[in-house]
Amino acid sequence: MSQGLALDQPRERRHHAALHGRDSAAAGRRHARTMRRFLPSPTRHRPIVTAPILSPELPAGAEPARARITAAWLRDETEAVNDLLAQATLPPAEREQVIDVAAGLVTRVRARAKDQSAVESFMRQYDLSSEEGVLLMCVAEALLRIPDKATADKLIRDKLGDADWKKHLGQSESLFVNASTWGLMLTGHLVNLAEETRRDFTGALKRLAGRAGEPAIRLAVRQAMRIMGHQFVMGQTIDEALDRCAKKEYAMYRYSYDMLGESALTSETAERYQEDYRLAIARIGARGPFANHTDAPSISVKLSALHPRYEVAKREIARRDLTAKLLELSQLAMQQGIALSVDAEEADRLELSLDIIGDVFAHPSLAGWNGLGIVVQAYSKRTPFVIDWLIETARAAGRRWYVRLVKGAYWDAEIKRAQEQGLAGYPLYTRKPNTDVSYLACARKLFDAGSELIYPQFATHNAHSIAAVHYIARGRPFEFQRLHGMGTDLYAEVIGADKLNVPCRVYAPVGTHEDLLPYLVRRLLENGANTSFVNRVVDETLPVRELVADPCETVRRFASIPHPRIPLPVNLYGELRKNSMGINFSNDNELKAAAEAINAKSGPWTAAPLVPGATGNGPTVQVTNPADRRQTVGSYVAADAALVDQALANAVAAQPDWDRLPAASRAAILEHAAEQLEARRAEFIALCVREAGKSLPDSIAEIREAADFLRYYATMARRLFGQPEQLPGPTGESNQLFLNGRGVFVCISPWNFPLAIFLGQVSAALAAGNSVIAKPAEQTSLIGYAAVKLLHEAGVPEAVLQYLPGDGAVVGAALTKDPRVAGVAFTGSTETAWAINRALAARNAPIAALIAETGGQNAMIADSSALPEQIVKDAIASAFQSAGQRCSAARVLFVQEDIADKVIAMLAGAMAELKVGDPGQLSTDVGPVIDEDAKQILVEHAARMDKEAKKIAEVALDPAATAHGTFFAPRAYEIPALSTLKREVFGPVLHVLRWKGSELKQVVEQINATGYGLTLGVHSRIDDTVEYIRSHARIGNCYVNRNQIGAVVGVQPFGGESLSGTGPKAGGPHYLLRFAGERTLTINTTAAGGNASLLTIGE
Description:
globular, 41 helices
């Protein structure tokens, strides 16, 4: 979610210029344009039929098997696990048999571990376990990517500081290993350490680093990575990997080759990965012919590598393009006589992946080939229903699937995503043993389908899972799978006629060390958890039978099946507030319900001033849709000067009673309003889309933020205003501090967050005991009206909260110069804030409080230790989401020159994938700018940039979608210096600057010199760099290694400093205090006849 800017930047400034006696030609033009919007000519706005919101892009109905998958997205965990327990539980005698087999495996693995060489035991510890291991990998991962030596050396200094290592290196158990780790990292080979070094390892490490210097360490890390790479990657090229697998010691395994690489951000990268897969399939095939594709090597494909927009919002193009690409690869695999499996990815993409893989599976050109495979994740609540669907499609097509069952690799990211999105639950199980139970239940389902429909493949490094699957199979055909570099000892006890006699396929990554590392870090984090079997199998302190316990029995002993320390997303913030309710934009059931509700409430709307005892006689103003100016969305009646006076008189009279109402009662009203806002969100979504031109995700974020403000300020009012603070004093005296409302507050809010900032300001003023007069931005007067009506219905008295839409020159000026006003809360341009400040100061009246959140010239700084893909993803979101109309948006990207060419090329490629158009459709990335004035300023800026800067990219506009709206194509320019920008450009324009790694100080000084201090993004893996920027940049909100928009209420309190605002921060613990006055009460308690408490104190 997010906060916003600008009472129409220049426009509000023009109003105030006119209003403070500095009229201008610009103000005259603006006035003429406003007058044209008033009602007279009925012919100007014929009703235009605009596409309904959201529904045009939704699929029709789903067949029952697919509908069951979608219905299980957020299934209740207790109910789901109880179902699975019924399917996974074995009778007691059989359960013991399985445990015996598993215990035998572990005992033999532990015996093997004892005869290992130093290298093997080093590898075992490193085998994706220790915390140091993870840290080392992250260092190595970044080091291999950093092109310039200076940044690489900075990273080494940063990560080899003693703070991190003292924690890990003192533990005698793993001291040999830790020491070896560093020996390996620093010298490239394992070393036995002298006693003295063992005692003070950190000191020795620093001495060594000092003696060898960073360049030597850099070299050593690369050396170490070669050893690591050999352990975890089959080969740097497919031929190298195939040669290695042909060697005698590898011959007992089958192989599935995975071409390493992260998801594609650009079409060019996606095409390069497609070519890699084509080549790999041809090279594998060249080693044939193979007797059949079950015994043959296979290839594993990631759909995210093949398309830059593989996401539900882009389902039409993603499905079309990916089906074609996957079909081509499947046809090649069929020709070469090998199988092809599609890897599972994030929960959001599951159904889209089934569309694509299902289309390919049934394609007539693949008749007679049963080589297509799919991967399913046991941690997902939908997986049992996916397996049912796979069985049905196999039966319908008369073909067979390969199905690889894995535990799941994105657990922590999925939990975080569900919490951030405010989902009703989690798409996966919150406890690992629940996933283990699911694994066994799904295994049974796969076997029961019959081998003519499903050939099951079980990827696991867990001895109990191996033993249980082997038992459930009862001789039916299947294979095990493991990751290359992991579980070698365990599977040495599984394969072979004298063992369990089941074939095993190794998932073998192929790629350079640079590609290996992101993959490895994910494996490390996934298996490094101390609950991971891999980690515990050789821990002699853990009894064998405990290690191989039956997960069904473990789960039955839980008091709570869901994890008690992972609250449902709604309870994320505990006592502070409820987490607001989001929409899962990947769940078609939720989307269809939302579309229906939104389109039932899609206007037209009317609004008018809300002032008890008076009606507005101002002009009626037509409101049109920014995405299609031919469409009238509604109209509002503007307030006039007489109404302003009446509203002030009402507010003064109503405030004392509202202030005396207990804080808990005011808080209850605000919380009730939040519930009502969520219950009626469909209409507010329609209003945000049609009046403010907001995209659907932005509209939901807006409503969520508004609800968060209502609940947060309610909680803070209870805490701060609920009871007086008791102060110390001498005996016989009581001293108390009371907080109270200041009086009448005027809230002037912007058009870019017309609900969230509007309700944030209003609810804070109300919570503190003030009466409020709300003045919305003219462009979004319908939304403001609906919000005020909502608060009235929730219980705020009509005279306590009044609404005055209208021209800033009329309404704003009359309010800010009136002596009855005790305070103003304003969000908008810095110039307008100055004008308000002058108007308040010019009154001979009590000095008013001004809380202003104003403009910014927000930068993002990226050094060469940052991941280029991450920089580009975050820069695009920060600069172009909401058409760049956020006060937090990134306007300037500083990229270290060593990675600048790569980042700029990637930025241009990623921008080419953006779609500008109707904000009511999910596939739209960028909607319109708010009005013609805003667009004109951007057009003029672009014309100047075209002359003075170097254009990096401009997003293409489709005239059919944009001809009738105020659309402006997102652009990126490379500029020579920050001084090229004279003021904030409020729209989708990003300016890129190169900087030298040695000039961080100058970059921060330039940013501070702009005088603005709102948001700053930092992309760096170097803590020292992050800390330097944090402590030197004069910035309100700093975000590291993420985007810089979307401040969450109570989590990232929002607001700037210097020219960017007065503070305190909105959505923060000190905000309400600025709306309050303070009073003390001192009572001499002894006056009533002695100090009883002192006399009865006792000995």
